[in-house]
Amino acid sequence: TNDRTFAEYFRPTSLNAISRCALARHAGDCDADNDGYGDLGLLSAWESMTQHGDVYYGGAGGIGATANMPLGDAVANSFDVMAMQPVSIACFGSFQQGHAALAVSTMPTVSGPGTVLFFSGRPLAQVGSMMSPSSGDSHFGIAMRSGNHTDVDGDGKEDLLVMSDQSGWVIYGR
Description:
By secondary structure, the protein is mostly beta strands.
């Protein structure tokens, strides 16, 4: 038996049909505004030199009180990053002083180092960034992982695992 329920959401109706179909190439769930409710960060399909993302804030009624309704179009919930290649998104649950932030990688050049940007708050704002600790690294942030099993050092704080072409890095939670 399946004891889970699912709700279907779709892209805001202000976008054309092709953009609505490209809604979620990659998703990260996080309490980005630190209000105690889960939020959803979505990256649309990578189409050009800019990667667009949206954050949908949760509340007592969930992300949307009614399933099968279009998600909102609020500009305060979105971000754009430079991307010559598809980027990644993850939740860093212990970004700073136990507060969560969405981690979004950016790849402004084809073979460059890459950067991870951190977004939090409501309205959404960039609250930090991090480049690879190694100067010879490329594509820092090409993949990221976080969640219940990423407390690598056992201190009770979620850590963020960040991959690049040459290495894997652990960003310890604070």
